[in-house]
Amino acid sequence: MLNLKGIILSILITLLPICFNNSYAAKTPRDIKHIDDSVIVSRIYRAYLINKSPNPLRIKIKSKNGVVTLTGKVKNDKNYIAAIKIAKSIDGVSTVNAEQLNITKVEKLSKDLAITSNIETELVRNNIFDIKDIKFTTIDISTKNGIVSLTGTVCNLKKKNHIIETANKTPGVKHVDTSRLEIHADMT
Questions:
Q1: What is the edge-to-edge ordering of all strands in the sheet holding 95-103?
Q2: What is the CATH number assigned to the segment(s) 111-187?
Q3: Could you tell me the pTM of the whole model?
Q4: Domains in the chain: boundaries
């Protein structure tokens, strides 16, 4: 159950874009080519509140020209990944810097887990999979010591190459192993 601060924050976040720039109120995010930084911050806070994880009261969000910086504390690596994924999913966000977002518990997010998360997020963000492909396509992405392993099936070479390219351009990736990424043309 949300406490009073949470309710007030929710109301403020909802009203913020309307108060500062009413022109965005009637448009969907897809209609807007450049989204004001205050609107981006508001949408990220709102998404955190809706998802109930991470705690939006413990994270400070700044945005400048679509580059989002997250600072503060989260309680575990799951919330750390959620904070980054949610921020990246917001229209208008080009990059998320979470170098100053700290995990309060002893468990620390491994670089490999962050690499895997970044690849998965980018693939979803780029809409690599059409709706019909999700049902039949199973891709497992794992990372160990900067080496990304892609396992599963895709419907064509174009999709396979796009997945490989996305993995290769992800910061921290040393090598991409595609020996278990197969193409099944009958999937289409």
A1: 59-64, 67-74, 95-103
A2: 3.30.1340.30
A3: 0.46
A4: 4-103, 111-187
